[in-house]
């Protein structure tokens, strides 16, 4: 007669099986993220190259406004908005994937260890929910930027104040990096990236909700650096690269809170320099 297999031994076999599958699922997830990252970087480079062919509009105050905020070549406002949000999402994928990939892997691993068969699909939906939040932020940013651009074109006084206002925004963004609010949300983001997750229900709504919650935390955590990017130019490759490195370092590198503070002091210095330079030109 065959001896019955003890339940604990069955559990051990299941654990060993999942441990054997973990490296393969991890390699697959990171491979997909790397491919998506490469595609979005290429698309961002192409978009920035096309925008560089358009001359910026000289404005009162000695600065030039990007044509990102204005309809060109007979395009309508909805078309310009859709184009901006599309480019924004592609940029955010390229910028946020280096720090998001470890979080998605932890989520995928938690689902697989809980025995969910659709872990890959749930992880994909979590990513969709995450970037949906960034897409909404991009839409709000476009409305604000387009409104501000129209105001600057109609009011020379507002245009002349832009260089100083930009410096004040950058200075404030650096100060925000030093606050307890930044530290709290950064700890939440680092905890999601560096520790395991509790078993989550394998439902599409739950996965999207998890991604949306993660995206909201991330947007608050990155508010200061996003403001710096908006001031420097959302289509400026150097600004995008610098912000990407800063976000990745404070999220995944050791001593992330210390790195965030160092970044804050650097941003404060840049803001002060911008204010002094703008004031000297008045």
Automatic annotation (TrEMBL):
It comes from the Bacteria. Keywords: Membrane, Transmembrane, Transmembrane helix. InterPro entries: PpoB2-like. The keyword DNA-binding does not apply. The keyword Transmembrane applies. Pfam families: PpoB2. The chain crosses the membrane at residues 27-48, 84-107, 119-149, 161-181, 214-235, 258-276. This is DUF2182 domain-containing protein. It comes from Paraburkholderia strydomiana.
């Amino acid at each position: 007669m065959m001896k019955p297999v003890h339940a604990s031994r069955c559990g051990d076999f299941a654990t060993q099986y999942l441990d054997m599958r973990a490296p393969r699922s991890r390699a697959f997830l990171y491979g997909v993220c790397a491919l998506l990252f490469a595609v979005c970087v290429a698309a961002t480079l192409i978009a920035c190259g096309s925008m560089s062919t358009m001359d910026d509009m000289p404005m009162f105050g000695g600065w030039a406004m990007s044509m990102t905020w204005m309809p060109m070549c007979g395009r309508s406002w909805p078309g310009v908005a859709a184009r901006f949000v599309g480019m924004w999402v592609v940029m955010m994928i390229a910028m946020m994937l280096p720090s998001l990939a470890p979080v998605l892997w932890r989520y995928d691993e938690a689902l697989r260890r809980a025995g969910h068969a659709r872990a890959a699909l749930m992880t994909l939906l979590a990513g969709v929910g995450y970037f949906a939040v960034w897409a909404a932020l991009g839409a709000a940013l476009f409305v604000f930027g387009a409104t501000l651009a129209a105001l600057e074109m109609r009011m020379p006084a507002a245009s002349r104040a832009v260089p100083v206002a930009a410096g004040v925004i950058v200075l404030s963004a650096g100060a925000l990096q030093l606050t307890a609010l930044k530290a709290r949300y950064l700890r939440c983001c680092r905890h999601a990236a560096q520790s395991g997750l509790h078993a989550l229900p394998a439902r599409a709504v739950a996965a999207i909700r998890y991604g949306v919650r993660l995206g909201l935390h991330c947007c608050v955590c990155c508010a200061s650096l996003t403001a710096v990017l908006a001031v420097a130019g959302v289509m400026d490759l150097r600004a995008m690269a610098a912000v990407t490195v800063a976000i990745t370092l404070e999220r995944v590198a050791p001593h992330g809170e210390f790195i965030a503070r160092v970044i804050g002091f650097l941003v404060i210095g840049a803001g002060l320099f911008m204010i002094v330079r703008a004031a000297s030109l008045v």
